Each structure stands twice: as C-alpha cells, then as structure tokens.
Amino acid sequence: MRIVVPVFDGFTSLDAIGPYELLRMLPGAEVVFAARSTAPVTDDAGWLTVIPSATLDATASADVLLVPGGPGASRNLGNEALLEWIRRIHATTRWTTSVCTGSLLLGAAGLLDGLTATTHWSAAGKLASFGATYTEQRVVEQPGGIITSAGVSSGIDMALRLAELAAGRVAAEAFQLAIEYDPQPPFDSGALSKASQEAKDYLAAR
Amino acid sequence: MRIVVPVFDGFTSLDAIGPYELLRMLPGAEVVFAARSTAPVTDDAGWLTVIPSATLDATASADVLLVPGGPGASRNLGNEALLEWIRRIHATTRWTTSVCTGSLLLGAAGLLDGLTATTHWSAAGKLASFGATYTEQRVVEQPGGIITSAGVSSGIDMALRLAELAAGRVAAEAFQLAIEYDPQPPFDSGALSKASQEAKDYLAAR
ipTM value of the model? Predict the structure, then answer.
C-alpha cells in the first residue's frame, strides 16, 4: 500500500499530516513525501520544514495519491511538470485524493472535468473553473477512485473513509481509536454556514 | 506570542501539527520547533522528517509550550536534560500544554504532581505514576496554565480553547473556520468507551 504525498513550498501542513496519521497505519503502508527535489520544503506558515523522501521523477506509481493544498498549491496551477506528474501517477492509483485546495491541482491536471468535487470553501469558484461541480460536502467520492475533501481538517475524515475502503470498517475504526478521534470542538464555527459574521469578518481582516 | 514545540525522534506528527495549524494563526505568532540539535528528526512512523528550527539550549522561553507525544516521548522519560529544559521553559510560559503522551514528559518533569490531567487512553496508568489523577476528558485545564489533552487528534480541540484564551472567542471561531474544522467522522469509534471489541482487538494485534 504505497501512499504518495506531493509536497511543495507553501503547502498546508495539516492537509498532509492529518490523513497521513491514519493512512500510515494501513497494512503494508509505505509513505512517500515527494517533491521536485529532495531539498527541504517549507509550509505556508513558514515555520515547518520537512525533508522530502523522494523526488517526483523517482516516484512512478501509487496506490493512494494524496494531494495537499495551501497557497503553494494555487501557485503551482501552471506548473506543467507537476500537473503531468499528477496525471501519470493517477493512471496507476486505486485512489487519487485531495485535501483543501489540493483539488485545484487535480482540476488543473484535468482530472475533475465533469465531476462533482469539493475544496476549501474559499476556493469553490476556482474549482468550478476546471469543469468541476462544487458541492459543500466534506468528502466527495466519484467514479475512477477520485476523492476530494473540503478545507484542511477534512482530510482526517476522508482518510477514515479511505481506510475503510482499503482495509475494511473494523480496521478504520481501530485507526480512529488509535488517534482518539472523538472530536469535541468547543465552538461550532467550522463551516461557512455555521460561522458568525464576526468570525468571518475577523478572518477576512487578517 | 511565542509557541515552542519540542520535537524528538519518535514523536507523533499529528500531535504537533494539529494544534500548530491553529496556533500559528494567533496574532504575532512565532513558532519554534526545538530539538536537542538542529539535525533532522523523524516521527514515530518513520516516514516524516522535519528540520528543527532551533536547539533546546537556544530556546529559553515560551508563551505556549506544546509537548507532543509518541513512542519517542516515552523513550525520553529519563532524559534529565529534556526534563530540566521543560521545567525551565515552563517557568516562563503562560500555558504549558501537552498532546497525547506528551503529558508523560510533563509528568516526568514533575509538573503534574497533584493535578488532574489526561493523556492517550493507553497511557492512563503511566500518567498516574507521576502523581497525576487521570481523567477521561478530552482537554483538561488546571491552575498554573497547565493544559493536557487526550490522544493525538485531541490537540486540535485543545488548540481551539487555547486560541480563545489567548485571542478571544471570535478569533478562535475564525481559526476554526479557516481550517474548516467541522468534523464528520464516518464512524463513532474515537474513544475507548465507544469502540467495538473487534476494533480494540484489531489494534491490539497490530
């Protein structure tokens, strides 16, 4: 079970690490953080630096492709080498997945044309520009093994579903217990339809 | 707002990255991933390697100390240099916090003696050996600014509460919206009291 996660400067850490923490428990899991080179890559906030484990060129196939988002994803929408790599890997996968604005990279690669998909709420319009129909669902499964998830933290929910598809429900439930994923957020502000105007204004002013 | 996260070989990635993704949005946030040296550090699964941004010796104070867990935390319970560093930093913090078995490090440093605290469900007995009273709550706030959280993913809930304490409720709600934290796990197996016997058996047999 080979899980490949492309990383690039400006990726959002939790997009990648949330689902990674579950998928790494799949039987026989091997995880590759792949990048253009093996030079260190820094996330969107600028504080976390990771060392890729392989280059894109040296990474030819995957059972699961997991594409994270972040400002770095948006900056790479015209990166034809990366898009061509995504298409090439996708041809080998059982599941091609994205978290947050990682779906824009799938879209730019032409993989979402005519499909229903999701992304971070702030990127819904952009997603539609790639021929996808945006839906507010947290996790969207489509034919061809394409699964997109909404903003940042939604990748954790997606990975639980992926774990069920790959290893069965008991395994997925065991992984949920392992990471004690029994969410109890102190507020209910995690969706555009639930957040107060004050919270939206605060975010817009940052 | 200086947030210091000690990292060590065998730390659990999501313990650190979940709360980081929220706390980094605090006004004026500066995040330091500190380690014994600035040599790369690899997580418990062995797939993610990060480059620390500072040494422990060069890190003298924090507003928030966030201690992740993982097998590497358990292996460091006798590391007197690390425990002394934790005590020294704690003397400077507004909040000293832990995720998962990071609480064992706080305990070994003597910070939890006589307090109520939490940890990953599998480490409850060990936590008690440091004079703490284990409680199954997801996030436990105690006098002196000590906040412990339960297994792995619970650090996200803790960070929302920390954000509220540090920057107010509207800010915390805005951060929740930014990471679209509107959890919808497909199963309800994230606590020992909720998981099936089959899921527990699966995990025990790994």
Answer: 0.97
The pTM (predicted TM-score) of the whole model is 0.98
Q: Where are the domains of chain B?
A: 2-204
pLDDT at A5: 98
Contact A12 B31 (CB under 8 A): no
Alpha-carbon gap: B36 to the closest alpha carbon of chain A (Å)? 16
Q: Are B153 and A177 inside 8 Å of each other by CB?
A: no
Positive or negative: CA dihedral A116, A120, A121, A126: negative
User: At B205, phi and psi to the nearest 5?
Assistant: -85, -5
Hey, which residues 87-146 in chain B have their CB within 8 Å of chain A?
Answer: 100, 120-121, 138-139
> Residues of B with CB below 8 A from A192's CB?
177
* Cα dihedral sign, A166-B201-B206-A138: positive
Q: What is the Cβ-side half-sphere exposure of residue B184, based on CA atoms within 13 angstroms?
A: 15
* Inter-axis angle of helices B197-204 and A169-178, nearest 10: 70
Q: A65 in contact with B at a CB cutoff of 8 Å? A: no
Alpha helices in B24-150 (DSSP H): 71-75, 80-90, 102-108, 124-128
Model confidence at B59, in pLDDT bands (50, 70, 90)? very high
Choose the catalytic residue: B73, B100, B146, B152.
B100
Whether B69 contacts B35, CB under 8 Å: no
Using CB atoms within 10 Å of the CB of residue B197, give its burial: 0 to 12 exposed, 13 to 18 middle, 19+ buried.
exposed
Mention every residue, 6+ apart, whose C-beta is less than 8 A from residue A204.
none
* CATH of the domain spanning B2-204, picked from 3.40.1790.10, 3.40.50.880, 3.90.226.10, 3.40.190.10: 3.40.50.880
Residue of A2, A11, A21, A100 to mutate when probing chain B, most B C-beta within 10 A: A21
Q: What is the pLDDT of residues B115-169, one digit of tens each?
A: 999 999 999 999 999 999 999 999 999 999 999 999 999 999 999 999 999 999 9
